[in-house]
Amino acid sequence: VGPLLAELRLRGYKLGVLTNCDDAQFEAAHRAFRQPFDLFVTADRIRAHKPDLWHFRAFQLMAQVRKDDWIHVASDWERDIVPAEIFGVQRVWLDRDGTGEDPSHASAHVQSAADAGLAIDWLFQDCAACAS
Prior knowledge:
Layout: H1 2-10, E1 16-19, H2 23-30, E2 39-42, H3 43-46, H4 53-63, E3 71-74, H5 77-87, E4 90-94, E5 108-110, H6 113-131
Parallel strand pairs: 1-2, 3-4, 4-5
Helix pairs in contact: 1-6
């Protein structure tokens, strides 16, 4: 994931995290990344765990973005992809394990982090074309 995050940052994307970790767990993990995330939402900060939709709403409020201005990238089907679809944001499903879940619930279905970056570019480009 590290190279994907670095590449996305080079392309000008802001990076955020929605995590079920508590603050202490996330802080330890966050130190392992070369550059800090622009925003992070932990279960501790908002008193909710994914798949609760409040997790996604809290991120939207904290980031001050519209739903079509962010893409949720995740590998967890039940805690991330399904609630992101219900919440109404675009989602890239990083299905490394080939789980067999229905890929039509994702805006893009990929099996590698490298492909996730391409999917993000494609979705933002497609979204911009739809708004024109």
